[in-house]
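WP5 quarterly update. Target: Probable chemoreceptor glutamine deamidase CheD. Source organism: Halorhabdus tiamatea SARL4B. Length: 170 aa.
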Amino acid sequence: MKVYDGSEGQESTPERIKVGIAEYDVSTNGATLSTSGLGSCIGVALHDEESSVSGLVHVMLPAAEEVDGGNPAKFADTGVETLVEELEAHGADRSTMEAKIAGGSDMLDFSKNGSGIGLRNANVVEETLSALDIPIVGEDVGGDHGRSIKLEGDTGDLIVTSANRESKRL
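Structure tokens (predicted):
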């Protein structure tokens, strides 16, 4: 994880930071955070307008095992919690954070019984954000298509590009 704070000498155009699967990143100076390959995975974008701190995590699975000891960004519960802590460490205030989420498709769930990994990921993300008192102010979840997202760190806007339709701004 790296934090973009503007000290890299890019004053005119904010940096674009790619966040991989089971990774997260934080921007304190307007960088655009992006991730792709959101099928059943969920991209969780957090933004605190008052402090201009933003973050993005790309989670793969619903919940970490109690004795996992691995990468917290891999899981919806620990990934969201870790991202919130990182934003707070960089000056954000949980009481003014807002969340936007995308992904959670059931692209490979042929049973169509609603128990797929995408739905479970979305449910755990929503439960974790609710427990942390962070409102979800925009979402594009479910369905059977992949997505890519870009979080504009200066505005908190989330641009969602879906495999089956045009981009939309949350």
